[in-house]
Amino acid sequence: MLDRFGNKEIAEGFKLICSRETAGNLIDQFGNNSKMRSGLKGAVKKGLGEMGFNAGGGAINWFPGHMAAATRAIRDRLKLADFVIEVRDSRIPLSSANEDLQPQLAAKRRVIALNKKDLANPNVMQKWIRYFDSCKQDCIPISAHSKSSVQKLLEVVEFKLKEVISREPTLLVMVVGVPNVGKSALINSIHQIALSRFAVQERKKHATVGPLPGVTQDIAGYKIAHKPSIYVLDTPGVLVPSIPDIETGLKLSLTGSVKDSVVGEERIAQYLLAVLNTRGTPLHWKHWNNRKMDGIQYVSEEKHKYDPKDLRPNRRKPPNVSDVVYVEDLVTEVQCAMYKTLAEFNGNVEDENDLENLIEQQFEVLQKALKIPHKASEARLMVSKKFLTLFRTGKLGRFILDDVSDTNPVS
């Protein structure tokens, strides 16, 4: 499929080693269908898998120097850490693991925090929790912005450290993970909880938080407890320098752990459409009426006028009712357009050419649904960006892209 992915261009973005089968197929809130998944595997193989990769593999073409230095620092500090919190994205529990560090992480006291649980399907999440339990690995789904959720994580950490606390005056807890999984947001929540717990605290500090992967560029420590002293270190996310297969790279791109500019928004959107179509997800949207009423906000041009009040510190405000209604209407139109195109589709989503034609048709109807001018010079790019935003903010539903059925319990 998807010759429009641009084999030559994407090879420059992903220089991958294709040494094994796709690590995980896809499942969503509507179940697992192995026949429909085969269409996606074929599409990815045809559109991306025939590129000429280096025989010995290679690094993804996005590995900032500060992250390489951070990787070395993490390896050194792991030797001193008493406990590790490995943050992963709940939507890709396996694909968001840092494979380079797994041998060292597995040798430490560790809990895997599956962040952004509000974007992941809870039923499928339970299967992943059972999987990690079968591997004898502690795992807890969290929302890094929720104090109650982070509090439960800290309770697990403290429980696991009980046997160490009795004999060590100072304990070190490390937070690690790939870019943009929410490590810094988690650190901030931990620090807020620590400030309310203990009477004596050092000056309040914040980790740098941002929407782009790799935004935290140094290793900072936070004292969260006294007697014994417990320090939590925030470490920059380090993406594995060699992504094992193409689909893993696309999943990381879709969830934001790789910058959009590496792969291109249009290619990522095509992959998302392939995922949704091969799962039959749009067919379920006809009866889906439980969308959330918060999230994306669109501001009219009148609101962009200069106002001295704009200089005040930004604080989160309740969404404007008209903005919420607009977003809800927008999502409804997108879902209806997707439902109609797939319901009326006479081809076979397991056939790469048919799937490509369907996706091209959907780009056209999405342009209308997303209210993008027909003659816009970059209409296709605008469609891709808006459609990806709806997915990444949970407006299209709660998904888990990795398939737990493709994993083997580790003894």
UniProtKB/TrEMBL annotation:
SUPFAM superfamilies named among the record's database cross-references = P-loop containing nucleoside triphosphate hydrolases
Q: Which UniProt keywords apply?
A: GTP-binding, Hydrolase, Mitochondrion, Nucleotide-binding, Transit peptide
Give the matching InterPro entries: G_CP_dom, GTP-bd, GTP-bd_ortho_bundle_sf, P-loop_NTPase
Where located?
Answer: Mitochondrion
Chief location bin:
mitochondrion
Q: Does the keyword Iron-sulfur apply?
A: no
Which Pfam families does the UniProt entry name for this protein?
MMR_HSR1 (PF01926)
GO CC terms for this protein? mitochondrion
GO BP annotations, alphabetical order: mitochondrial translation
Question: Locate the CP-type G domain: which residues?
Answer: 71-241
GO MF annotations, alphabetized: GTP binding; GTPase activity
Q: Which PANTHER family match?
A: MITOCHONDRIAL RIBOSOME-ASSOCIATED GTPASE 1
What is the protein name for this chain?
A: CP-type G domain-containing protein
What species does this protein belong to?
Answer: Dovyalis caffra
Q: What is the lineage of its organism?
A: Eukaryota, Viridiplantae, Streptophyta, Embryophyta, Tracheophyta
